[in-house]
Each structure stands twice: as C-alpha cells, then as structure tokens.
Specification:
Helices cover 38% and strands 19% of the residues. The protein is built from 12 helices and 9 strands. Bound molecules: ligand BV8 and zinc ion.
Length: 243
C-alpha cells in the first residue's frame, strides 16, 4: 500500500503549477542562522533594534553592521540540496518560489521565478529618493552609505511595520491562487502578511504540503506534513536522490 510519502511524491510528479513558500529553515543546512530557533538571529539582537525603520533612524550604523554581517554569511553560503531540488523540479513546470528569505540562495541554485517578499540583502534603497541599486559589498564606509541625492542608503529589506512590495506580494497571491500544490518549507509562518500565502492557496483548492523541522500551524492544517530537515526530505519528494 502506498504510504503518505509515496502519495505526495506522485501528486508532485503529476502537478504542473506549484508554489514553494519558503523561510529561513530552507537555508539552515547552508549554514545560515534562522530567526526564531534556539541560537537564531533574534536571540542575539531584538528585532526592534535592527529590523524597523525607527531603528534605522536612531542608529543606522548599528543596523548596517547587522546586515553587513548577514551579507558576509550569505556570500559564503552555498545552495543546499533543498534549493537545488526545487530549482530542478521547476523545469517544464509553472513553479513560483515565494520566499521570505533575503539571501539569494534560491536564485543561486537556478530557480527562475523567485518572488522575494521581504526584499534582498543584495540591494540598497535610498530612504529619501527611493532609488534602488544592486550592491554586493561586504565592507562599506561610511555607514550609512550616502546616496547621490544626499539621503542615506539602507538595505532593501522589508522591516517590521513596512508594507511588502505590492507588485511582488500581488504576484505571490496570484501564484498561490492558481497552484495545485503549495509546498511550505522551513518557516515558522509567524510573520504576516507572508504567512497568509498557503491559506490563499488552500482556499483556492490547492493541496498543502509542509516540510519543517518542527510542527507549525500550517503543518497541523496540511494535507501532508513531513517533519525533518528540508535538505534531507525534499529531494526525495520531488523525485531526486539527495545530492
Ligand atoms: C506589515 C526582515 C503593514 C529582516 C522580517 C497580523 C497578525 C499579527 C501581526 C501582524 C499581522 N499583520 C502584520 C503584523 C505585524 C508584523 C508581524 O507579522 N509580526 C509578527 C511577528 C507578530 N508584520 C509586519 O510588520 C509586516 N508589515 O504588516 O506592514 C503596512 C501596510 C501598509 C503600509 C504600511 C505598513 C512586515 C513583515 C516583514 C518582516 N521582516 N525581517 C531580515 O530578514 O533581516 S521577518 C523575519 O521573519 C525574516 O525576515 C523572515 O523572512 C521572517 C519569517 O521567518 P522564518 O523564515 O519563518 O524563520 P523562523 O526562524 O521564524 O522559522 C524557521 C523555521 O524553519 C522553524 O519552524 C524551524 O523549525 C524550521 N527549520 C529549521 N531548520 C530547518 C527547518 N525546517 C526544515 N529544514 C531545516 N533544516
Ligand atoms: Zn537618494
């Protein structure tokens, strides 16, 4: 008799439109810290001190130091077998990777359609004129770096209390409403409005598959829940041996 993993594997093999909704857990096996786990980023520093517009106004250099350290870690990290399996599975399908991550590892693995809900480490944005630029520097002086307009450049990250980029969020909701399966991978799904993406998919009739190291609210409501490491579980579910 087919077990749950066999059934999930068969459904994924047959599906044409799939959304992967990912969080920090998908990059944990690449050596990047998650946020809310023991030893996570929010254990070292409270989010209000580094991930709000108020924090940036009060101490932009401190906020920049936090993000430069994140750039250094992300620049040294390699995509893991979960990132690679997602990218390979997308070939010949309509796959959107809706990610809360800012590290760029899905793109580094070759995923074509990545919707970054919370921005990216690899861009700056001017708080005054709004200009956005790719920026991969790991050391910057002075902090904050000045914009040509005289304003201060900030990381192009969505902080608490800020709106998600409406075009990106809109595209993610559309993809969620159109998909057959929404795979939720490595996220506590504690941050809104991103956490509502799987619900959008489920309401429109998609089946929900969760791969996570611990049980979450989405896991309890999922059609399939696999507990463990994404890099160990996902490649098999997506039809690849672990690489
Ligand atoms: C906004 C960027 C309005 C910085 C981040 C409704 C209800 C309650 C609150 C709210 C609500 N609506 C809005 C809010 C407020 C707030 C919010 O959600 N607060 C929560 C925390 C209570 N939301 C906002 O402020 C949002 N903005 O609402 O704006 C608005 C509208 C119009 C005009 C103006 C304003 C903005 C949210 C943006 C937040 N940005 N940080 C940065 O990255 O430096 S959030 C932060 O959490 C991260 O960026 C990350 O993207 C996000 C999600 O975290 P996860 O990725 O899930 O990581 P976490 O550590 O939590 O979990 C990891 C999971 O992986 C764990 O379950 C673990 O078990 C698992 N795992 C570990 N290893 C593995 C694994 N699983 C598999 N394999 C492994 N190997
Ligand atoms: Zn400017």
């Amino acid at each position: 008799m087919a077990d749950d993993a066999d059934r999930a594997r068969a459904a994924l093999a047959a599906a044409r439109r799939v959304v992967f909704f990912t969080g920090a857990g998908v990059s944990a096996e690449s050596g990047l810290a998650t946020f809310r786990d023991a030893g996570g980023l929010w254990e070292g520093v409270r989010p209000e001190r580094v991930a709000t517009p108020e924090a940036f106004r009060k101490d932009p250099a401190f906020v920049w130091e936090f993000y430069l350290a994140r750039r250094v870690a992300a620049a040294r990290a390699m995509p893991n077998s979960a990132h690679r399996a997602i990218a390979a599975y997308a070939a010949g399908r309509e796959v959107s990777v809706v990610t809360q991550n800012v590290d760029g590892l899905h793109q580094a693995a070759g995923a074509a359609r990545v919707l970054e809900l919370h921005g990216t480490l690899w861009r700056t944005r001017c708080g005054t004129c709004g200009v956005r630029r790719e920026d991969r520097r790991e050391e910057i002086a002075p902090l904050p770096p000045p914009c040509a307009c005289g304003g201060a450049l900030r990381p192009d990250i969505v902080w608490f209390g800020e709106a998600l980029p409406p075009d990106v969020f809109g595209a993610a909701v559309c993809a969620a409403r159109a998909c057959e399966i929404c795979a939720v991978v490595g996220t506590s799904a504690a941050v809104w409005p991103a956490a509502g993406i799987p619900t959008e998919a489920a309401r429109a009739g998609a089946r929900i598959l969760v791969v996570n190291a611990e049980e979450t609210e989405h896991a309890r409501e999922a059609d399939w829940y696999f507990e463990g490491r994404a890099g160990e579980i996902l490649p098999g579910l997506l039809g690849f041996e672990r690489s």
